[in-house]
Amino acid sequence: MPQEAHHQERRAIPRYSYPFTASIAEFVFPMSCQPAFKAECIDITSKGAMLEVGSIIPKGSVQQVCIDLPGFEKKLQNSTLFTNELPYQVRVITRVIWTNVKNDTSVIGVEFLNMNKSAEQALARYLKEKRT
């Protein structure tokens, strides 16, 4: 009898795979002097994300990550005085918990360390709407 291959999700929180644009910069002051690298957010949860970055990002480093939530700014325009046409952006301090490097590109897993309450609520609302 052939053995079935089962992959059981070990995460307590579901992850969402959407092609988000992001940027990442080492969290060292002054932040305005730190180079930011473009990144692709491969998947995201309310507690962390997996990013692909065209640079080598070391495991254990603390990074500031900005993730665009496309289309969310239109929902905010309908419910508040938000008038910005640019994509809504979640800015969060993260720690790199794992990294795979290949040809000067890193795929990294980050955990969110410090997210303000409004960004946390916006991300939770955005992910809930994407799920339904």
Automatic annotation (TrEMBL):
The lineage of its organism: Bacteria, Pseudomonadati, Thermodesulfobacteriota, Desulfovibrionia, Desulfovibrionales. InterPro entries: PilZ_domain. It comes from the Bacteria. Residues 9-128 form the PilZ domain. Pfam families: PilZ. This is PilZ domain-containing protein. SUPFAM superfamilies: PilZ domain-like (SSF141371). One of its GO terms (molecular function) is cyclic-di-GMP binding.
